[in-house]
Amino acid sequence: MQHSRRPLLASLLAAPALARAQAPWPNRPIRLLVPVAPGGSVDALARLFARHLTPLVGQGFAVEDNGAAGGNLAFEAAARATPDGHTLLAGWDSLAINPAVFRHVPYHPLRDFAPIIHSVSAAQVLAVKPDLPARTLAEFTALAQTRPLTIGSPGNGSIGHLTGEMLKARTGIAWTHVPYRGGGPATTDLLAGHLDGVMLTLAAVVEHLRAGRLHAIGVSTAGRVAALPATPSFAEQGVAGFDVVSWQGWLAPAGTPAPVIARLNQGLNQVLALPEVAAWLASQAFAPVGGPPETLARLLAADVARWPALVQAAGARVD
């Protein structure tokens, strides 16, 4: 009789775990971690997608912004979260860059995350104050030989900083890098005349460029971008093979069930196809990407391999 109780006891102990495993997803609001301060393009995109995804999954999103430590606190929180689909990450370039910049990060960008979707791509742009006597990369290069120039970025080791260092290395242009805590403060100082220029994601300054408050020297993508068709790329202006694309996408903790990843991917692809979303992305100079999770997985792996040598050459490491 005692022997017969063991299977019953085992089944009773396993019942709560089985119930959790079979519980419908999502069964409560979804926590969406954003590795930047409120107000930037990563934050705006996260909230846009979350708002439109809510009716497709049947639950709302609690968006949490945390740009501290270059976004590492948000990345760590996402990596350590329970992989049940109720904690997600709105990731971007720094997820791949930070392991090369910081001596230690408490996560691995490939092992600790499950890619969901590569949502958008964007160019970096070298934008300068309108009274700077340079309109092309050649004129900017010549000007840098006659006077010191100051170029701001969203921070040490940011994609804006590293894109600028790549351009300097490929062209021999000299300028002083001025790191900020985000693209907003850098743009504010540029508009006030405290900088000569900035290297930022195009979305951060596109309205100022369209209004003539700033001038674009060039963009970092291989060709021109639809949002700024009159501005040539650096590659067009003689820097052969220059191509840097900023990305933003969604990820989940590693181990999140495949059906949850598939449902989120399907929903986010539907959001990208909405006319109002496409119109907003175009107005902000973002190029929609979408597709299966593998698209982001390949991009993330390529970036993780690409950035360490560039970070070392730029001297952007943080001890």
Write the layout of secondary structure elements.
Layout: H1 2-22, E1 30-34, H2 41-57, E2 61-65, H3 72-80, E3 87-92, H4 94-101, E4 113-128, H5 137-144, E5 150-153, H6 159-171, E6 176-179, H7 183-191, E7 197-201, H8 206-210, E8 215-219, E9 245-253, H9 258-272, H10 275-283, E10 287-288, H11 293-314
Parallel strand pairs: 1-2, 1-3, 5-6, 5-7
Antiparallel strand pairs: 3-9, 4-7, 4-8, 4-9, 4-10
Helix pairs in contact: 2-9, 4-11
In brief:
This protein has helices at residues 2-22, 41-57, 72-80, 94-101, 137-144, 159-171, 183-191, 206-210, 258-272, 275-283, 293-314, and strands spanning 30-34, 61-65, 87-92, 113-128, 150-153, 176-179, 197-201, 215-219, 245-253, 287-288. With 319 residues, the protein is α/β, with parallel strands linked by helices.
CATH topology descriptor of the largest domain: D-Maltodextrin-Binding Protein, domain 2
Which band does the percent of strand residues land in?
15-25%
The N- and C-terminal alpha carbons lie at a distance of 65 Å
Q: Which regions are unreliable across 5 or more consecutive residues at pLDDT < 50?
A: 6-12, 14-21
Mean pLDDT: 91
Rg, nearest Å: 22 Å
Largest sheet: 10 strands, mixed
Per CATH, which architecture of the largest domain? 3-Layer(aba) Sandwich
Helix content, binned percent: 40-55%
The count of helical stretches stands at 11
CATH class of the largest domain: Alpha Beta
Q: What is the string of helix and strand elements? A: HEHEHEHEHEHEHEHEEHHEH
CATH evolutionary superfamily of the largest domain: Bordetella uptake gene, domain 1
User: Number of domains in the coordinates?
Assistant: 2
The count of strands amounts to: 10
Structural class label: alpha/beta
Globular, elongated, flat, extended or rod-shaped: what is the shape?
A: globular
